[in-house]
């Protein structure tokens, strides 16, 4: 049996329009598509939960003359515990995969469904892939960043004629339709339908987590973007260039499409207005955000938050950050913190309140943290710091991997984040303060550091949070680039 979307898209559109000015992304996501449908493929009963495997068609993205895959379809796994206690909230993880993968027989988020006694789900094939663009002279079978980069190039080369070409549009729409599918299916099965969602995803899916929370901020009450902090795109990317004297090797798909030459082009600003989460901060005023990053990410840099974190904090009234040391873009070790965050959101339990300042003088850098545990907010159980030095004096580079310029090979970058202590500054009845002082290197290297605190969470979980990263000295090896000189090299 198949089900088609009814008035829910129109209702969501009205809600968004009443709260903020609709963008082309809103218009695309909330336009009803007769291709939307879903069906159940399989049911797997287990002693403590039931697993449902679904096939959902989310949309038609243009037609057969545009690409080899105009119809987007996705697998969805839904885990329903036998005894649902947290029935108001569900978790949706956005995942990758491609159309040649076998039908899933498990849900990676089942562990969270069991521990939280709530519905969890995973959607795959975000984006739907691989496929070809018929206008692509290479007729290349593209996936992941190769797809996104091609659509950016199409938008830029056609003077922004049709923003629907940007891949973030169908990626976001697919996730919104997944929430519709979950609601409609649970209603059919006479299972309590969640009133709200927490959405998460990594990398490209992390970006889609941000945009999903923006366009559907009524249902999405919390977001967990993982390894995606390229917000406020142009200044953030310019910091990358200045840090490396070029572009990280994992930007190769964008480099091949000449995207880096557009840094000063006004069309890049128009593109950013539609897909950059920075443009949607007014949508997150009621959204709890937990951003997870790897300290050695090959795509993004430890101080990316410099270009948006203060504004995000002001917009949300307090977002949360964890940077995990000694891990890269293939991040690991965040699952317990994710669970703890989700349980607090579902139970309406106050999350930790950490505020910090980062300053420096001519010889030292300082991080000062104040943790507020008033009104039921948790006290910290441990507070420490991590710091690392660059492996050479050529680049302000903390990635786990880099290009060996003599061979062109990808090699390990020997960056080690070491745990260090902090100084306890004192405690009042409702706050505790900690500080970190580090010497600014004078030997040509760069040093990066941040403070980490742990908190006891629901059901014995531990929530780990960190401050922004302070990089010393506050210098770059190269100046900003402009126009054609921004083509650069891959390093």
Can you walk me through this structure?
This protein has about 500 residues and is α+β, with helices and mostly antiparallel strands. It has a single domain (about 10-350), classed as Rossmann fold. Helices cover about 25% and strands about 30% of the residues. It is built from eleven helices and 20 strands. It has helices at about 10-20, 25-30, 110-115, 145-155, 170-190, 205-215, 235-245, 250-255, 265-275, 310-315, 335-345, and strands at about 35-45, 50-60, 70-80, 90-95, 120-125, 195-200, 220-225, 290-295, 320-325, 355-360, 365-370, 380-390, 400-405, 410, 420, 425, 430-440, 445-455, 460-465, 470. The strands form four sheets. It has a nine-stranded mixed sheet. Strands 12, 15, 18, 19 and 20 form a five-stranded antiparallel sheet that branches. It has a four-stranded antiparallel sheet with strand order 10-11-17-16, with no helix packed on it. Strand 10 and strand 11 form a beta hairpin. Helix 5 (about 170-190) crosses helix 6 (about 205-215). The protein is globular and about 65 Å long. The relative contact order is 0.11. Pfam families: PhoPQ_related. This is Autocrine proliferation repressor A-like. Keywords: Signal. It comes from Adineta steineri.
Descriptive terms for the model:
alpha+beta, five-stranded antiparallel β-sheet, Rossmann fold, nine-stranded mixed β-sheet, 491 residues
């Amino acid at each position: 049996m198949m089900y088609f979307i009814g008035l829910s898209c129109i209702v969501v559109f009205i809600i968004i329009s009443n709260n903020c000015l609709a963008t082309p992304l809103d218009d695309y996501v909330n336009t009803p598509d007769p291709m939307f449908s879903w069906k159940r493929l399989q049911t797997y009963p287990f002693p403590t939960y039931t697993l449902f495997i679904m096939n959902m068609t989310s949309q038609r993205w243009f037609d057969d003359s545009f690409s080899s895959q105009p119809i987007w379809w996705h697998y969805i796994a839904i885990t329903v515990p036998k005894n649902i206690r947290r029935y108001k909230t569900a978790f949706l993880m956005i995942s990758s995969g491609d159309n040649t993968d076998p039908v899933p027989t498990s849900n990676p988020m089942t562990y969270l469904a069991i521990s939280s006694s709530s519905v969890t789900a995973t959607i795959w094939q975000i984006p739907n892939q691989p496929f070809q663009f018929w206008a692509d002279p290479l007729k290349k079978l593209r996936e992941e960043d190769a797809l996104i980069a091609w659509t950016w190039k199409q938008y830029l080369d056609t003077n922004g004629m049709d923003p629907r070409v940007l891949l973030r549009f169908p990626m976001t729409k697919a996730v919104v339709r997944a929430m519709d599918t979950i609601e409609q299916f649970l209603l059919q099965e006479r299972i309590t339908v969640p009133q709200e969602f927490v959405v998460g995803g990594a990398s490209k899916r992390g970006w889609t987590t941000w945009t999903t929370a923006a366009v559907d901020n009524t249902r999405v009450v919390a977001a967990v973007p993982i390894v995606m902090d390229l917000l406020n795109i142009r200044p953030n990317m310019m910091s990358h260039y200045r840090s490396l004297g070029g572009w990280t090797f994992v930007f190769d798909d964008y480099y091949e499409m000449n995207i880096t030459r557009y840094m000063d082009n006004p069309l890049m600003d128009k593109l950013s207005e539609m897909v950059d989460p920075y443009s949607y901060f007014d949508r997150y005023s009621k959204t709890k955000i937990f951003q997870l990053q790897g300290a050695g990410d090959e795509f993004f840099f430890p101080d990316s938050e410099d270009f948006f974190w203060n504004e995000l904090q002001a917009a949300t009234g307090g977002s949360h950050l964890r940077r995990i040391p000694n891990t890269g873009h293939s991040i690991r070790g965040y699952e317990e913190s994710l669970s703890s965050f989700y349980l607090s959101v579902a139970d309406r339990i106050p999350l930790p309140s950490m505020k910090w300042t980062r300053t420096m003088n001519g010889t030292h850098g300082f991080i000062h943290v104040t943790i507020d545990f008033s009104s039921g907010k948790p006290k910290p159980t441990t507070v420490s710091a991590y710091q690392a030095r660059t492996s050479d004096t050529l680049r302000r580079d903390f990635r786990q991997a880099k290009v060996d310029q003599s061979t062109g090979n990808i090699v390990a970058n020997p960056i080690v984040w070491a745990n260090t202590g902090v100084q306890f500054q004192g405690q009042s009845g409702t706050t505790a303060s900690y500080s970190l002082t580090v010497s600014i290197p004078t030997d040509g290297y760069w040093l990066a550091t941040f403070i980490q605190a742990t908190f006891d969470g629901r059901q014995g979980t531990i929530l780990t949070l960190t401050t922004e990263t302070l990089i010393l000295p506050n210098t770059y090896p190269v100046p900003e680039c402009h126009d054609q000189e921004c083509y650069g090299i891959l390093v």
